[in-house]
Amino acid sequence: MTRPPRRARAVDVAAHAGVSVATVSFVVNGKAEGRVSPATRLRVLDAIAALGYVTDASARALATGRRRQVALLAHDMTNPFTAQVAAGAAAGIAEATEGTGHLLLLLGSDETGPDVEPVGAATVDGVLINYPGTLPAGRPDLPVVHLDDPAAGGHQVSMDVEVGARELARHLAGLGHRRVLYLGTPRPWSTFAQRRDAFAAELAAVAPGAVVLDDRCDIDLAAGVQLAGEHAQRWLADGVTAVVAATDLQAIGVLAGLAAAGVQVPGRLSVAAFDDIPFAAVSAPPLTTVALPARELGRRGAVLLAGVIAGDRTEPGDPVVLPARLVVRDSTGPAC
Amino acid sequence: MTRPPRRARAVDVAAHAGVSVATVSFVVNGKAEGRVSPATRLRVLDAIAALGYVTDASARALATGRRRQVALLAHDMTNPFTAQVAAGAAAGIAEATEGTGHLLLLLGSDETGPDVEPVGAATVDGVLINYPGTLPAGRPDLPVVHLDDPAAGGHQVSMDVEVGARELARHLAGLGHRRVLYLGTPRPWSTFAQRRDAFAAELAAVAPGAVVLDDRCDIDLAAGVQLAGEHAQRWLADGVTAVVAATDLQAIGVLAGLAAAGVQVPGRLSVAAFDDIPFAAVSAPPLTTVALPARELGRRGAVLLAGVIAGDRTEPGDPVVLPARLVVRDSTGPAC
């Protein structure tokens, strides 16, 4: 790439147009009205064009090659829900920047969460956070949008998991289930607490005396397989007739573990979950689940973040809450 | 990394060689022809080598910490194989840069492939390409590593899909299968051609007279479900006893479609594929598949790219080929 020996600055524009730097500043910042005559304003604009002076902050950063990108901090890209969030966020960034922006990916491990350190040094304009955590010190100015973490505060896009959880509770209560195992996760994420609490509250409301037992495992196919293999007989001995998992990944693992243990679904146990990843439709049996719009979560988050970066929104407004709905398939049936 | 107190600059090279800075510039920018005598050009190149002057724009940016990121061009992050490649690439970049580098994500749609335009403007040091395509014009200098695209040439990391395909052919031949439907993809990707051709060649070698029929569908659960739903009866009428899909995603869809159509697997039809994504182990029945190391593909690609960027490797060496192996599960059985 060829490059001019020196990039034009406001002082060059001022000299070229025969005005003060303050006048240039008024013009480029849209404050010429009442301060700069139309003729002078035209002269400044001509000078800007002649010298190739870049005025817009984002365009300036792009021109100097410093930014025009946001980071996505996420836990695990091999989780299909997260992958959909990332795909949506990449689409949202492209949409908001007319194809000139891109998504930077920061991933964590099971133990540590994403490595947020790079954000301190990285040349990003903002951050999408899809795990429970905060930015490292030193960048309090960096625009942030939290995804699916309603307790995070600040700018956020979340999903109405409570509406979905209550719908699922009514569905299972209507099938006669009164003893439900709720399979949570070890991750201290507000969305997971919200799912469980709304489910338990609604079940208690529509089926007084119903009991929710709690267990937990990693958000992982293998963890679900292992848990079901080890605990299925105890669940049945405890009178449990339905298992609700916090995520499809756990539930699909549980289905495989129950199949291996010879436990019929939904004959002996009903199984349901949250997310509706594409695999939920082809599990055996196909999974009843609360559909959460992962891709739209990422897309809307990216568009909101672009607005925050552009200065369109400085104070957090009402959080964006995307709808959730129950999808009933074959993994839930009458309590035995 | 230790660093000399001051990095050599063009002016140092000029002084060392006894020429002007303009002459150095002509040489390093490939414009010496007709301007600089061969003897002078050699003297400049000697000075460059002696002073460790870094001429490559990418390496210079990396060393001065202005970029420190690479792009991954991929088709679809919601494909679990691609997501694993991305997770591996992020880990590889972190490894190669001691945690200071990051991965930039560029995704394509079904129709268009990744939007490669941003790479022209983006501040990346190099690109990992996990789809069949080339970079946009204007960046011929950008280091590139191709992943899983053996026909791409240049720096690349691939997997021994041929060994896996032949192992699968022998497995099915040993079970008595002589009429196999091979389910390819519409994507013109050399890895897919290699899988199909190696499978067909080995089947013909070990089971003379065996027939491979061809069909294709998108790499997508829903496409597999639909294809199996529409074609299963025709496959059976044609005497097909096994279906081999180019990817697990297609095969898991086919399994769901066959279940919905009441076709027993492996009783009436055996089903096998390539990839071994985590869902292959929990499909119904669990899927026989050629395990391909997606995560390691991304990781090794990123480490190789870092080496190319650092200038450790300028000419492509032997391609890195990672091992593949057949994982036999319950979806394949004796031909009926």
UniProtKB/TrEMBL annotation, chains A, B:
One function term, GO molecular function aspect:
DNA-binding transcription factor activity
Q: SMART domains given for it?
A: HTH_LACI
Keyword entries, A-Z? DNA-binding, Repressor, Transcription, Transcription regulation
What Pfam families has UniProt attached to this entry? LacI, Peripla_BP_3
Asked if the record carries the keyword Amino-acid biosynthesis, the reply is: no
Q: Which residues form the HTH lacI-type domain?
A: 8-64
User: Which named protein is this?
Assistant: Transcriptional regulator, LacI family
Q: Which organism is it from?
A: Klenkia marina
